[in-house]
């Protein structure tokens, strides 16, 4: 069975987000071994930058890219993206539409599903093809169980993928391409005028690693006892090339900013390594990090629930253990 898949790309006007390359690879895997095709839709303000992103996607295995260029696409918003996207969908008639389970994707996908009277499966962490059916797995009950769903009824079927759960597309996927420009077309439908205007964007200057895309996260809870304690975690994260996250307990206590909160009402993360320091492991926290590949917990209470989901547990005082870990890592780098 061959499928036509449309991937909705996301970028920060200069670079593609990693989740887009993950969605691209997931789409390529679904069509692999068939005559199915993978296309991308990308909206933005600057045509030159979109062209560069489109070429990147083509080199990584997309067959065709649709560019929607409009000043209203300055910041990616679902309502402005919808008109050109609907025209592309009408033209392409994709079987599946895949976006990242991000702020943009989560706003866009249900609106699309409503407009197209289509099904939508959110927060997908795995896709497999079995007996010609495409099956989508997603966590439920705050990550305590997984369910596998499939679509029925008419397409397009809409899916959002949880970041960091799929390998990003590789450059070798696209080696058959000779003339990239032929594979790019403009989606001529203008964007919808903004019904909500972004007055200003205050960019948080962080050490550059987006929590949702970080491979390594060192997270702190109420046990960290203050912003000074978080400096210890930052030092460990710096040694590991990771980012620092937090429990809501730590955010509520004013130890760190809410942008660092991980959990049910914070960010959902899936790093390769998650080091939880002074975090008890409440279900609302676990909902946002239980899919991490390897979980290390440091807690002085041997009964702390976090140990039940940890791959490695260290019972002890984080103020002794974290500096020791950092010092050992420094020795390795020396
Ligand atoms: P605590 O539960 O107080 O745990 C602190 C831990 O630190 C303890 O286990 C203690 O043994 C350990 N400790 C103390 N000192 C040390 C030391 N020196 N060394 C080592 N260990 C030490 N929480 C989230 O995190 N994210 C969410 O998104 C979220 N959403 C929520 C939504 C709702 C609707 C509700 C009701 C709650 C939500 N919560 C969320 C809150 C959640 O229920 C917990 O209250 C919170 O996760 C607890 O944070 P904590 O583990 O840092 O603090």
Walk me through what this model shows:
By secondary structure, the chain is α/β, with parallel strands linked by helices. Helices cover about 30% and strands about 25% of the residues. The protein is built from 8 helices and 15 strands. The protein has helices at about 20-30, 45-60, 80-90, 105-115, 225-240, 250, 285, 320-334; strands spanning about 5-10, 35-45, 65-70, 95-100, 120-125, 125-130, 135-140, 145-150, 155-160, 185, 215-220, 245, 275, 295-300, 310-315. The protein has a 7-stranded parallel beta sheet, with helices on both faces. A 5-stranded parallel beta sheet has the order 12-11-13-14-15. Helix 3 (about 80-90) crosses helix 4 (about 105-115). The radius of gyration is 21 Å and the shape is globular. The N and C termini lie far apart (about 55 Å). The relative contact order is 0.12. The model has no long low-confidence stretch (mean pLDDT about 90). Flavin-adenine dinucleotide (FAD) binds near residues 288 and 317.
The strand order across the widest sheet is 5-9-4-1-2-3-10
The average pLDDT is 91
Any ligands, ions or cofactors bound here, and which?
flavin-adenine dinucleotide
Approximate strand percentage: 15-25%
Quote the distance from N terminus to C terminus.
54 Å
Structural class: alpha/beta
Query: How would the global form be characterised?
Result: globular
Number of continuous helical runs: 8
Helix content: 25-40%
Total strands: the figure is 15
Output the radius of gyration.
21 Å
What does the main sheet amount to? 7 strands, parallel
Sketch the topology as an H/E string, one letter per element: EHEHEHEHEEEEEEEHEHEHEEH
The low-pLDDT segments are: none
Family: Belongs to the ETF alpha-subunit/FixB family.
Keywords: Electron transport, FAD, Flavoprotein, Transport
Pfam families: ETF, ETF_alpha
Protein name: Electron transfer flavoprotein subunit alpha/FixB family protein
